Amino acid sequence: MRKLFALAGIAVCLVALSGGTSMAKPHIAIVATGGTIAGAQPSAGQVGYQSGVFDVQRLIDAAPQMKDIADVTGEQLVSIGSQDMNDEVWLKLGKRVNELAKQPDVDAVIITHGTDTMEETGYFLSLVVKTQKPIVMVGSMRPATALSADGPMNLYEAVAVAANPEARNRGVLIVLNDQIHYAREAAKQNTTALDTFKSPNRGPAGHVSGAAVSLFTKPATTYGESSAFSIDDLGGLPKVDIVYAYANMGRDFIDLAVKNGAKGIVVAGVGDGNMTKVATNGLEDATKAGVAVVRSSRTGSGAVYRNIEVDDDKLHFVASGELNPQKARVLLLLSLTKTNDIGELQKFFNQY
After folding, report:
1. Residue 279's Cα: distance from chain center in Å?
2. Residue in 36, 245, 28 with CA at minimum distance from that of residue 154
3. How many angstroms separate the CA atoms of 135 and 167, rounded?
4. Residue of higher predicted confidence among 40 and 314
5. Per the residue annotation, which of 21, 33, 36, 117 is the catalytic one?
6. Which of 11, 208, 245, 315 is the most exposed place for a label (fewest CB within 10 A)?
């Protein structure tokens, strides 16, 4: 008798959770921006292709099995290769994802995107999208017309991840090639390989095989609803440039960035965020002109800490921590919408 009462109680709970009906599939909104996943070759077998040729409905139609997991709807925000991603599209995309996430009938949002700047867009969204609902970015390394195109499977697995309750409150996830990465950690590390995305410092966020999803520990840094950054009232973003360090580096590009109105400069430094003495002098002069300077590293992994080799306190530089140059640029441009105080900027880099 007790077992019968227990089973009845479970049944009542399930009915209550489902609004009195059988459990409905989650509704996932797909926002398409173009990229290789929507790309087409001029003719079969050609290596070259044009990004963003196919619209979002074609992407959905190419992976019909995902409708077994979720109810999927799509909209086309832009149709570009991600090498052409820019501040205007970032603001438009971030605001649209926030709008969708607020809708009670939307359970998760997926963004299709080219891989070239996916890590930057993903990190940007992780800092400005305010929701605990799953936000997943997906793309492909082969165009839609290629032999053995990877886009349909990647999109199917992105839907599987987005539909998984464990994907909630994890910031922005990137799904490609059976791997799940946090946008903050992901970096594109190969020009054409299917497994191009790695998370070199902290490892992947999880794995996905078909509809089977396995997620690991949640991020340790601040993101999402806890983020201090908002784009609700922003019509633009400050100009932030990246300057690449190399042997015999001069200060020409540093001075040019300042002349052209940069509010911030990220140096992709050698080794532990280092650069020549001439370049260091140029960057110090930039700080005296009111430009925020962040030291990062071109090496691809590791962290740049304060006052290691370079006297950041004396020079008024900011150390990027684990963020690579392109991610450091994203955080700096958002941070500059709130402050240009070096101490406060460093706190942001320590926190995010």
Report:
1. 30
2. 36
3. 8
4. 314
5. 36
6. 11
How far is Cα 92 from Cα 111, in angstroms, rounded to an integer? 13
Judge residue 170's burial from the number of C-beta atoms within 10 Å of its C-beta, 0-12 exposed, 13-18 middle, 19 or more buried. buried
108 forms beta bridges with 28
pTM for the structure as a whole: 0.91
Residue 15 pLDDT > 70: no
226: phi then psi, degrees, rounded to nearest 5: -85, -10
What pLDDT digit, counting tens, does each position of 178-221 carry? 999 999 999 999 999 999 999 999 999 999 999 999 999 999 99
Residue type, 126: S
SS (H, E, C) 177-192: CCEEEECCCCEECCCC
pLDDT score for 58: 95
- Say which DSSP state 146 is in: S
Angle at 344 between CA 339 and CA 348, to 5 degrees: 95
**pLDDT of residue 6 exceeding 50:** no
pLDDT band at 46 (very low <50, low <70, confident <90, very high): low
Is residue 286 within 8 A of residue 258, CB to CB? The reply is yes
The question of whether 36 is a catalytic residue gets the answer: yes
Count the helix, strand and coil residues of the chain and give each as a percent rounded to the nearest 5.
35, 20, 45
**What structural domains does the chain harbor?**
15-226 (3.40.50.1170), 240-351 (3.40.50.40)
Q: Helical H runs in the chain? A: 2-17, 56-61, 87-102, 118-128, 151-163, 252-259, 277-288, 312-315, 325-335, 342-351
What are 112's two structure tokens?
């299709």
Asked if pLDDT for residue 22 goes beyond 90, the answer is no
Can you give the length of the chain in residues? 352
How much is the pLDDT for 1? 38
Closest among 109, 108, 215 to 166, alpha carbons compared: 215
